[in-house]
Amino acid sequence: MTILDGKKVSNDIKDEIAEHVKAMVSKGEKVPHLAAILVGTDGASMTYVNAKVKACERIGFNSTLIDLPDYTTEEELLQKIDQLNTDNDIDGFIVQLPLPKHIDEQKVLMAVNPDKDVDGFHPTNVGKMALDLPTFLPATPYGIMELLERYQIETSGKNVVVLGRSHIVGRPMSILMSQKRKAGDATVTVVHSRSKNLKEITLEADIVVAAIGISEFLTGDMVKEDVVIIDVGITRVPDATKKTGYRLAGDVEFESVSKKASYITPVPGGVGPMTIAMLLKNTLLARKRNLQ
Ligand code: L34
């Protein structure tokens, strides 16, 4: 069993991007500038956004964190987005999800200029992705494909089962892995909360991408020997023995599944850090597009 070390691979990618930035600086070019909007004080969201800002600092990007209170109105958020859309110094920006319930997420994502949409969530970019046209790929699926590629895991002709159909992970993952591309060419099945005979389906999988949002959902009896496991889930489970008061759990029961797996991502240290690395990669791409 090999651990797919997302922490290490993400650091390699960050080093590669840092080299690009150095070259840009030496040519007198403007370095990429990422902005992130965070609405509210959700602990996990704050952790992720802060990690994104820190990663920017480490590789030499400029970054701006826009922290808005949870009572921010939809209109105020849309105004902020408009400012970023027209600010020539900002190459790309994200609106961290989830948003407070009183804000219409789809409306917000549609307000982002697709050329600055480094999350790849705007319908224009989702459409381009589905049609295999050049665009910003959503960071988590992009990170998973990069991880599979760097570990040279064969996906062509394999049975991939994606657990979950979310707009940000399950759905794009299933589209990308079925396409003719590196870490693609797979036979993809999407299963979700209404699927029947789930275990029968997962037992056929060569690769499982677990993104269903239920901690330790996938257990050892649901997978075959030598399966490749990508665990996207990250839930804070109360744990009094920890300083923080919680532990992080994936969608996979690591203990039982790792005994059967040929490769498996850990939580933490798997998919999460890859998400951040690919966001940076998209931001670099956004900057380069601006260069013309
Ligand atoms: N707009 N919203 C937008 N874009 C995204 O790409 C995200 N996502 C998801 C949630 N909302 C979003 C993220 O950034 C999930 N996500 C994310 C990013 C980073 C990490 C996890 C999820 C991460 O770095 N995880 C660490 C542990 C961090 C901790 O201590 O809690 C890990 O090793 O998995």
TrEMBL record:
Record-annotated Tetrahydrofolate dehydrogenase/cyclohydrolase catalytic domain positions: 4-119
Keyword check for Cell division: no
Pathway: One-carbon metabolism; tetrahydrofolate interconversion
Any one GO biological process: purine nucleotide biosynthetic process
SUPFAM superfamilies per record: Aminoacid dehydrogenase-like, N-terminal domain, NAD(P)-binding Rossmann-fold domains
Annotated gene: folD
Binding site for NADP(+): G164, R165, S166, I234
Protein function: Catalyzes the oxidation of 5,10-methylenetetrahydrofolate to 5,10-methenyltetrahydrofolate and then the hydrolysis of 5,10-methenyltetrahydrofolate to 10-formyltetrahydrofolate.
Cellular component, GO, one term: cytosol
Protein name, per record: Bifunctional protein FolD
